[in-house]
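Service request form, structural biology core

Requester: graduate student, group of Dr. S.
Request type: structure prediction, single chain
Budget code: on file
Notes: please return the result as structure tokens.

Sequence provided:
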Amino acid sequence: MIKLPETENYKFVQNRNCEYFPCHKTNNPDEFNCLFCFCPLYMLKDKCGGNLKYTKNIKNCSDCILPHVKGKGYDHVMEKMKEVVKIGSERG
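Core staff response, request fulfilled:
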């Protein structure tokens, strides 16, 4: 039987020593989550659910803070990972 954690601290990591911290504009740097420094949803293109735009056919996520929002970002990414796994298995 797997014991579930009693807290949700695993959903939040912050690296204030990073030379890019915070890497996106935010009004609340104390709640900026660095866990998904490289967004695992990038491959979902415009179906990632974030605030993105395309610049010369390149996905531009510079205005997206969704994966970095404490609590909400983790849950969103984990839900969308089902789609990432599906795409990966179809390509495999």
